[in-house]
From TrEMBL:
CDD domains attached to this UniProt entry: biotinidase_like (cd07567)
Membrane topology, record value: Lipid-anchor; GPI-anchor
Gene Ontology cellular-component annotations: plasma membrane; side of membrane
Protein location: Cell membrane
Residues in CN hydrolase domain copies: 40-307
Name used for this protein in its record: Pantetheinase
Cross-referenced InterPro entries: Biotinidase-like_euk, Biotinidase/VNN, C-N_Hydrolase, C-N_Hydrolase_sf, Vanin_C
């Protein structure tokens, strides 16, 4: 009896596995959420007030989750800080935090809500996942008392973590990730001592997860792709757009292409703080994206993606190293792009071939504009150095961009609109790093799906004339090994610190 039941069970399981392993694609959803913020106050809210505010946000997220599930989505990502916002001190965020256990405990909060104390937010998220039979990704706060003998234990006796949680379609907690690279001003949270590499398997591929500012660093973002071979990254974020190179849709889609992964980015919607820009990005092209500085509305995006990816290898310097300098003897000039001192060259003709170098990086561009307008100037720029404002990270960047005005001093400024279309472009650079993220951004901060490609020898080139005027075409390289060995003078760091105080960002 028992053995025949077992046999039947095995047979059914095998059938299910065969059946589900045939799931070559899945439907992903991301929700850009216009978060309801708490009162900015120095006095902590009561637990009841905090929960009431979180439930207001969860009411909105419930609408998005239900709608995504009805449209067939298998997984939905919601933004970082999407349940309570970001305006906190260590003390004022405390009433919003819950103890989030290690997923190994095998817990379905919806079925067993009081197993780990008072955890109403995890219970509600779990029930939403279970009821709608969909994976739910959310960002909440974790609190962990410190060990008495821990020298790094904060004076208030606890660690507070910016935390992503994932509940599977039965409501089980399957992933917990504590954000590693805390952004400046995020003083309410601690970083874990060591970067956590969090993955989980599904019938529609292997997933990895990280948060916002983490995308600029090696641990854990690159490890997840390079060593753990995830197919899809889940990315809750509260991203403030910075043009020309770090607008959300632009940089996140570039990371997906550069790393060869699916990337599900859910941003906060808060135009006043330049937070907008969510998307579903496949390695070959964005599948859906949203950028809206005009309304206060949230937005649900859905798209089908491949469950399993086969990564092709790009040698980012091969082509650039194989050719001679293309220059036509234009004058170089200096310009600042988000605090970094680039070397530029103006694109003088309607068509041309140019090379510009900075330190060890030479950038080659061939292009043809639809027309050379007298009211717009474009430049080719190169930067090879340590960025030190709002974070310390080594960059190698080749960029063609539209200058602010026809005054060359404005090359590198934030520009949102342009009028010049390009018939073709081809950009490459003599990169020392293997981590390069290709960006193409059109006027009004729009992406250009299907209009460009990267070749295995490291050229970013157009497949057809651009569908809109161009803001920038960029190869954004990160040289992680150089973040701490390179030589920023103490004066430079002090200067950067001064700037940081007067500026806010990602
Ligand atoms: C914000 O202030 C309003 C009015 O004073 C109050 O009703 C509400 O509970 C407060 N919310 C939080 C989260 O403190
Ligand atoms: C995920 O699935 C792959 C392939 O089926 C397997 O090799 C791997 O061990 C699984 N990982 C986990 C964490 O279950
Ligand atoms: C890229 O190609 C160049 C030759 O074109 C070669 O010297 C270099 O080692 C290659 N880099 C990688 C990471 O394979
Ligand atoms: C940029 O570098 C040039 C030469 O290397 C220097 O003359 C100029 O002052 C620098 N500009 C800024 C803003 O640092
Ligand atoms: C740029 O280079 C291409 C091929 O290398 C050549 O066909 C074209 O004529 C050049 N354009 C200019 C303006 O020099
Ligand atoms: C840092 O700079 C100093 C002097 O400018 C130089 O002597 C030293 O070799 C540099 N170190 C590195 C790691 O580049």
């Amino acid at each position: 009896m028992i053995s025949s039941q077992l046999l039947a069970y095995v047979a059914i399981s095998a059938f299910c596995i065969l059946n589900v392993s045939a799931m070559d694609t899945f439907i992903a959803a991301v929700y850009e959420h216009s978060v309801i913020l708490p009162n900015a106050t120095l006095n902590p809210a009561s637990h009841e007030e905090a929960l009431a505010l979180m439930n207001q946000n969860l009411d909105v997220l419930e609408g998005a989750i239900t709608s995504a599930a009805k449209q067939g989505a298998h997984i939905i990502v919601t933004p970082e800080d999407g349940i309570y916002g970001w305006v906190f001190t260590r003390e004022t965020i405390y009433p919003y935090l819950e103890d989030i256990p290690d997923p190994q405990v095998n817990w379905i909060p919806c079925n067993d809500p009081s197993r780990f104390g008072h955890t109403p937010v995890q219970e509600r998220l779990s029930c939403l996942a279970k009821k709608n039979s969909i994976y739910v990704v959310a960002n909440i706060g974790d609190k962990k008392p410190c060990e008495a003998n821990d020298p790094q234990c904060p004076t208030d006796g606890r660690y507070q973590y910016n935390t992503n949680v994932v509940f599977d379609s039965e409501g089980k907690l399957v992933a917990r990730y504590h954000k590693q690279n805390i952004f400046m001003g995020e003083d309410q949270f601690n970083s874990p001592k060591k970067a956590e590499v969090v993955t989980f398997n599904t019938t529609f591929g292997k997933f990895g997860i990280f948060t916002c500012f983490d995308i600029l660093f090696h641990d854990p973002a690159v490890i997840l792709v390079k060593d753990f071979h995830v197919d899809t990254i889940l990315f809750p974020t509260a991203w403030m757009n910075v043009l020309p190179h770090l607008s959300a849709v632009e940089f996140h889609s570039a990371w997906a292409m550069g790393m060869g992964v699916n990337f599900l980015a859910a941003n906060i919607h808060h135009p006043l703080r330049k937070m907008t820009g969510s998307g579903i990005y496949a390695p070959d092209s964005p599948r859906a994206f949203h950028y809206d500085m005009k309304t206060e509305e949230g937005k649900l995006l859905l798209s089908e993606l491949d469950s399993h990816l086969y990564r092709s290898v790009v040698n980012w310097s091969s082509y650039a190293n194989s050719i001679e300098a293309l220059s036509t003897g234009n004058q170089e000039f200096k310009g600042t792009v988000f605090f970094d001192n680039f070397t530029f060259m103006e694109l003088k003709g309607v068509t041309g071939n140019y090379t510009v170098c900075h330190r060890d990086l030479c950038c080659h561009l061939s292009y043809k504009m639809s027309e050379k307008r007298s009211d717009e100037v474009y430049a080719l720029g190169a930067f090879d150095g340590l960025h030190t404002v709002e974070g310390t990270y080594y960059l190698q960047i080749c960029t063609m961009l539209k200058c602010g005005t026809t005054d060359l001093k404005t090359c590198g400024e934030s520009v949102e609109a342009a009028s010049t279309r390009f018939e073709m472009f081809s950009l490459s650079g003599t990169f020392g790093t293997q981590y390069v993220f290709p960006e193409v951004l059109l006027s009004e901060v729009q992406l250009a799906p299907g209009e460009f490609q990267v070749s295995s020898d490291g050229r970013l080139f157009s497949l057809k004339p651009t569908s809109g005027p161009v803001l920038t075409v960029t190869l954004f390289g990160r040289w992680y090994e150089k973040d701490w060995t390179s030589n920023a003078s103490s004066e430079l760091r002090a200067q950067a610190l001064g700037l940081m105080i007067s500026h806010s960002g990602l």
